[in-house]
Amino acid sequence: MPLSRLAPVARLARAVPVGSMACLGVALNACADTRTATPDDPSQAALQLARPIHADGALAPEARGVWHAEAQGWFLQIEEDGITRWQDTPAGCYTAPPAGPDTPLMGQVEYTLILPSAEGDVAGFQYLPGDQSTRFERVARLPERCGAQDLNTETGVFAVFAGAMARHYAFFDERGIDWEARVDAARGQVRDGMGEAALRDVLASMMAGLSDSHTKLIGTADGEPFRIQDGQGETLPFVRESLGEMAWLVGLIDQLQTEVLDEGSVFTANDRILWGSLDGRTGYILVFTMGGFTESDVQPGSAEWGAAELAEFDLVFDEALSAFQDMDRVILDLSNNRGGYDKVARAIASRFAARPFTAYTMDTDADGTPEHVYQIEPAGGVRYTGPVTVLTSDVTVSGGEIATLALRQLPNVTHAGTTTRGSFSTPLAKPLPNGWYLELSSEVFAAPDGSVFEETGLPPQLEVEVYPQDAPVEGHARALRTLASRAPAQ
Predict the structure, then answer these.
(1) Which residues 6+ apart lie within 8 Å of 367 measured at CB?
(2) Distances in Å between the alpha carbon of 335 and those of 25, 162, 288, 479?
(3) For the sheet containing 372-376, what is the strand order?
(4) Pairing between β-strand 357-363 and β-strand 372-376 as defined by DSSP bridges
(5) Signal sequence span per UniProt (predicted)?
(6) Last residue of a domain, which of 201, 229, 257?
(7) Could you tell me if 188 and 273 lie in one domain?
(8) Domain limits for position 179
(9) In sequence order, what are the residues at sequence separation of 6 or more whose Cβ sits closer than 8 angstroms to the Cβ of residue 216?
(10) How far is residue 298's CA from residue 41's CA, in Å, rounded to a whole number?
(11) CA–CA separation, 445 vs 455, rounded Å?
(12) Count of domains for the chain
């Protein structure tokens, strides 16, 4: 297979922020809010759909005003000329510099839909139709603290960074981090005029060992771009330092199509999905990302983009699962899944469900009470409800973990492979006053029984080595053959 055919996958492997649509060519936070609201959420009970900004540019009267999302620390100021997002932090309230070409994609999209309550004092804002709403409360005016001070100084940026992490990061305890102590230790190192590079180094030291691939700091210091991010697991760092990620991905795909799968395997959906069969009796489908299935001129994050992504997904899964109907089992390979659009993660689970089920819950303010309970209905398209094995590794992250968490609730699914990465939360976007960009984990995903797998990852029911360091390509083939040779679970 030509290297050019694998370029999108390799590019994606480096670029996808591994999570809940913070990912694939869009702020797949356009991803952050792609969950289905629980029916008993009182803030959603009487909402009607309306566009904040109509196609002709006119402002919907329901949208105008100032709105506050406490859990996210955002004010939305909506006026005739559009939406201004204010970052409300313990250090102050400010607007971030405009998004530029180097701004992470999660920082380049804005809400397009509002679902106002009958009283008008509460509204849900959405990025895409049918996505989970972010709850905002209407306030009389923007607080006086917003814009009251210049925070674009070294001490200002430090205070915003430290306060935003303290207020919103949900997993210090799970990751063994005493954040208050780190802030106290770093404060004496920061002074105005110290320079961008020195400030970057201080913030980097505060993030050391966080081991969370969804929490990162991105920017430019003295003209040099930087990205401070930890928590990549063991497999990816090893592969990148040894044979190289491109060569690894090319080797995996080539091995699948020439040595493992039966003749006629299909590599499709913008090189994000590969499907076929093993020995004529086991259906196989590999999904690299939860989205990125199409290439067009449609604006990423738009309603048209979302519809196109799901339409392409449906076409591929209808074709693949139709071919699998007489198979003994199906292996769903998420062992190299880098995350993406949560709606796709749920759509995958719906393709293997015989009846409606509770998939997982999500708490947005870390108070221990989930705001959202995700129910998944069986798909209207082709489904496979026979024995299914989901294969994961420590590369599996974010949307890949959300799909795995949902699938584990199904009686016909066995989870095999190795433990997943342990980064579920959609990154919360907190651009800093100087243009640097902070993303952090603020959402707590849990199984229906309340179990949380952040940091620890999802442990498989059946342990099978997938990418051993002595054979990161060949080991994948051995794992598939091992799973295909097992008697199907009943």
Answers:
(1) none
(2) 21, 35, 8, 11
(3) 372-376, 357-363, 444-446
(4) antiparallel
(5) 1-32
(6) 229
(7) no
(8) 154-229
(9) 17, 227, 228, 229, 427, 438, 439
(10) 33
(11) 12
(12) 3
Residue that the structure tokens 């699938």 belong to: 407
- Six-digit token pair at 49? 């759909």
Query: 170 by DSSP, 3-state: which?
Result: coil
The answer to whether the predicted template modeling score (pTM) of the entire model surpasses 0.70 is yes
Q: Are residues 251 and 371 in the same domain?
A: yes
DSSP state of 42: G
